[in-house]
Every structure is written in C-alpha cells, then in structure tokens.
Amino acid sequence: MAMYAALRRASSAVVPLALRRTTAPSSSRTFHSVFSTGLLLSGEKATRTVVAPSLRFANSFATKTSADESLVQVLESEIKCAFDDNQSQHVEIPDDFPFEIEDNPGERTIQLKRQYQDEIIKVQVDIPNVALDENEEDDDAEKTSESSIPLVVSVFKGNGVCLEFGVTAFPDEIAIDSLSVKNLDESEDQLAYEGPEFTDLDENLQKAFHKYLEIRGIKPSTTNFLQEYMFSKDNKEYLGWLKNLKKFVEQ
C-alpha cells in the first residue's frame, strides 16, 4: 500500500486532473493504464521517480554493518593474542630426532617417516587433546590438565603388509591402544580380524611390543618433543583460521 500511494503521488505531476478523477483508486491495473496514457497525452518528458528504501531495510543494513564491524574488532583482538602465543612457542627440532617431519600448513596432522634397517616407519600425529581431571576429595575441586597426542604408527616391510599401532602419548608415557596387521591389497570393505584388545594380551607380550616400538623411535623423548611441536602447530593453525575468518567477514 505504501508503494501504491507513492506511485499515485508521482503520477499527479503528469496526469491531467480530469483524467485522474476517472481512475478507479482500487484498481492497480486501471491506474497503470491511465498513468501510461497520461504520459503519452501530456507530451512532456517523463522523469524517473526513485523510491527511497524502506526504513526497515535501512535499519537492517545498518545493523548488519555494525555487527560485522564488531566481529572484525573481536577477531583482530584474538588474532593479536594468537600471534603473541605463536611467537612465544617456537620449537626447535632436536638434532637427534629420528624422523623426517612433513608438516603442511592448513592440515591438523603431521607425517613422520624414517627407515629402520629394511623397514619403513611412518607415523601420523594429530593435534593434542587436553583433558581436565577434577579432584573431588574436598569442596574446592582442584582441576589439573593432562595433555596427550594420538599417533598411528605403521611399520612396512615392502611385502604389501604393515603392522599398525594406535598409540596415545602422554608426558613421559606411551600407551598402545590397538594393534593390527594390515594387508594393503585388501579392500576396505573387508572386515579382517584385528585381534583382541591390546590390554587383554599377556603382560609380557604387551611389554615386548612397547620395546618393539621403542627401538624404532617411538619413545618418551620422541613423543615429549612431539607434544611441544603439535601445541605450536595448533597455535599456528588457529592463527591462520582466524585470519581466514576475518578476511571472509571483510569481503
């Protein structure tokens, strides 16, 4: 109805008074016909009527712009904090680190690789997990954090078969979660028997597998460094993620 009223006001400058009186105000189709006829009969140059945006649209646009600007300011503040954290967590690779590191920006995992005698050892390392433990012995629950990193260790011997370990590395401690023999030629749809739970194995067998991994480089000195490295990588990836968010919002 507001648009119709605006058009009626615009037409009054060009439509003769007698012709306007013959127009039925309730018929938009009749009005359009008379308006067009009026323009032709007047012989005057028609002027374009620009209808201003509604107040609701203007307010909506202003609100969106204000919200986006506020979001950018918060992102900039968080980017500065992440940048400062990143600068303070630079990690040097030890000279005796036994693996080559493949670290691709934008990915949450890194790949390790080394050769041990006739074997190829590959390790996929994921972003650290931090779990909060609560001591509920008293009313003021004391919270401590314990960090860990998940690893998948694969041992290849060039015969199309590999030994794969699921490992969780804690500070100064390594836990083997799973163990299986993988045939690389088998379809992923095949459900091969992967053995019992590792913790159900004989204790001596568990210790032997821990030693098996240790001599191949999966030991506390290695995983302790990987914890620091992955915390640093997590900060770098977070900083890049924030910058991508800011770039998108500003477009």
From TrEMBL:
Pfam family, one: MAM33
Xref: SUPFAM superfamilies: Mitochondrial glycoprotein MAM33-like (SSF54529)
InterPro entries xrefs: MAM33 (IPR003428), MAM33_sf (IPR036561)
Protein name per UniProt: Mitochondrial glycoprotein
Organism of origin: Stylosanthes scabra
